[in-house]
Each structure stands twice: as structure tokens, then as C-alpha cells.
Specification:
By secondary structure, the protein is α/β, with parallel strands linked by helices. Helices cover 32% and strands 17% of the residues. The strands form three sheets. Strands 1, 4, 9, 10 and 11 form a five-stranded mixed beta sheet that branches. Helix 4 packs across helix 7. The radius of gyration is 24 Å and the shape is elongated.
């Protein structure tokens, strides 16, 4: 009998703050042991699904009750939920186009680092032999990163969903993930605009004509962000319509490129992010390589006890994260 068929699954496998059930299973049953076999390409969790003959997707997906055929297979249910939520987060994800780095912590207290170079610090001056070398000062922030818990509560009896197909139930769980992704994007935007509590609110430039955005305003935004690179623009719906209505965005050659590749022309080549989480009247431009840090207190968390015991009525699915600014001047706001 293969090793993966002898593993005893239990609630205690979920108690690690930084390790998922898949991580625990991989430490017991490494995937590298299956190279060259029919199970190559499956991770430790997928091998457990195969062990209990549970199909979570496709035309022949099983019903929710399949997870609860034994106490061992029931222990897999919270990890299935986590994965479905993760899938929803990834499909709705735009944070990867906004944050420079992601830090995962084992706790709730975290103090980030920051740097606020002066104009002289940003310039690459010639250094003569024995002369002073310009410095970039990096310091610890005075205040802790504010973490926010985002999530949803499952409100459904086991009896109501046990005969539902898993692929359909996955759709519901993915929407929870999409909600978390949108809520965290709003948190990121709030930190970019207002700062993270360390006197580092976003600087601002104004459009030449109030209530409208001209191409010259974008050039001013680009110049004001220098020497950082303007590679990401975040805009609410009202600003998106103004940006895409610019004559420069209707270039015929660019239109041909859109029809050929499906890639929409964007202002100054920057990645354009549309969000409903931002109030009208402003546009954010930033250098995503050095503007923002995402801090996560663990990963997606589920009430695994309740899920395993079929007490779905009040089972919470949450993710706790916050954001900190790295280089204060790596983001700027255009108000119009």
C-alpha cells in the first residue's frame, strides 16, 4: 500500500499558523517520491483526494457529502474550502500589480521599514576619490502596520448543501475569495492615499482644467513621479472613462494592436487598473516595484473545527492583511 494511503488525517494538522494542510501533508508524503509514477504532478492534498475518490471539479464532480464518508476524508474539507477561496482571490487579483513585496508574519505586530530620499539622494552624482558618498537612509517606521481582517461567514446547513455538486459549491467559495481580493485592494488604496500612519500620505498634482483629464496632465504626472517609473495607474470608473476617451488612447495603430493581441492601450504604457473602491476626482500613479508592501498574518483561515464537524452555519473564512509604504514618493495622486 502506498504511503499516502496510510496517513491518518486529523484536526491537529490545521493548527500551524504559517503552514496549510497541504504543507503538512507534503512534509509527511513528499511529491518528489512520486516522480516517474502515475501520481506525478499531484501534490500531497490531491493524492488524498484520489485516495478517497473525491472529484472536486469537472462533469463528474462529487457531492459535498463525499468528503464526510469517513473522519479521515472529512479532515480534507477545510483545505478544499481554502483552495477554492484562494482560486477566487487569484482570479480577482490585481494586488500583484500594485504591491512590491508580500511579507507573511506569524503574529499581529509588524513594523515595516521605509526610505524617504531627498532630491540629492536620488541623483547619481560623480564621487571623487576620498569624497563623500551619497546615502540612502533606511529606517524602521514609528507605527505598526494596521492589519484588517476581511472575510465572509458561511451560512448554510449541512443538510442544505450535502447533495450539491462540488464544482457548483466551488463557485460560491470563489466569490468569497473575490470579495477578499476587492476589500484588500481598497485597503491598499487607502494606505497609498492617506499613508500608513507614519506621516507618509500621497503627494498630489492638479489637472490643468478642473473636472477633466488631458494628456498633458498625464505627462505632468509622469514627470512628477520621476525618478521613479510610472508603471501602474489606479483609476475609478469615472476617471477610466475620461482616460480611455483621450484622443491619444484612440490611436488607429493601437487599435489594430488591440484587435490582434487583445491588449488594450494604456496611458504612457502603464498598467491600468480599474477599481470601484476609489472615489471619483483622482487618479493614482505609482512605481509598483518600490511603493507598497503587503503584510499578511498567515494565510486564508477557516473555522476548520466547524467545517469538519459539519457545523457550516457559522463557519468563518477570513484573511488578515495590511499595507505599508516603502518609498513615500513612489506614488502620486492626480486630482481633477
Amino acid at each position: 500500500m502506498a504511503l499516502y494511503e496510510n496517513i491518518t488525517l486529523e484536526k491537529g494538522m490545521y493548527q500551524g499558523k504559517t503552514k496549510s494542510l497541504t504543507d503538512v501533508l507534503e512534509s509527511i508524503d513528499p511529491s518528489e517520491n512520486y516522480k516517474g509514477t502515475a501520481l506525478e504532478g499531484l501534490d500531497a492534498f490531491c493524492r488524498q483526494l484520489k485516495r478517497f475518490d473525491i472529484r472536486v471539479s469537472g462533469e463528474g464532480s462529487d457531492c459535498v457529502e463525499k468528503f464526510f464518508q469517513s473522519s479521515n476524508s472529512a479532515a480534507l474539507f477545510p483545505e478544499y474550502v481554502n483552495r477554492a477561496v484562494h482560486q477566487g482571490i487569484e482570479e480577482a487579483d490585481v494586488l500583484s500589480d500594485v504591491v512590491a513585496t508580500v511579507t507573511t508574519i506569524d503574529g499581529m505586530d509588524y513594523r515595516s521599514i521605509t526610505s524617504s530620499p531627498t532630491t540629492d539622494d536620488k541623483s547619481l552624482v560623480k564621487v571623487n576619490e576620498g569624497a563623500y558618498i551619497p546615502q540612502t537612509k533606511v529606517k524602521t517606521n514609528e507605527n505598526l502596520v494596521k492589519l484588517h481582517k476581511r472575510g465572509r461567514m458561511l451560512v448554510a446547513s449541512y443538510e442544505a448543501i450535502k447533495y450539491q455538486r462540488l464544482d457548483l459549491f466551488t463557485v460560491t467559495l470563489k466569490q468569497i475569495g473575490a470579495y477578499i481580493a476587492r476589500a484588500q485592494l481598497k485597503d491598499a488604496i487607502d494606505v497609498i492615499l492617506s499613508g500608513d500612519g507614519n506621516n507618509n500620505a500621497c503627494s498630489s498634482v492638479s489637472a490643468a482644467t478642473q473636472g477633466s483629464i488631458a494628456y498633458a496632465d498625464l505627462l505632468n504626472l509622469w514627470a512628477s513621479l520621476a525618478p521613479y517609473e510610472l508603471n501602474t495607474i489606479i483609476a475609478p470608473t469615472s476617471a477610466m472613462t475620461k482616460l480611455l476617451s483621450l484622443t491619444e488612447m484612440k490611436d488607429a495603430t493601437a487599435g489594430l494592436n488591440f484587435h490582434k493581441t487583445g491588449k488594450m492601450i494604456t496611458p504612457l504604457g502603464a498598467n491600468l487598473i480599474h477599481t470601484g473602491s476609489m472615489s471619483s476626482g483622482s487618479v493614482i500613479a505609482l512605481d509598483k516595484t518600490c511603493a507598497l508592501e503587503m503584510v499578511k498574518a498567515g494565510d486564508v483561515v477557516t473555522d476548520y473545527d466547524k467545517l469538519i464537524d459539519r457545523q457550516l452555519e457559522r463557519a468563518a473564512i477570513t484573511s488578515t492583511a495590511g499595507f505599508a509604504k516603502i518609498f513615500k514618493d513612489a506614488s502620486i495622486k492626480l486630482t481633477y
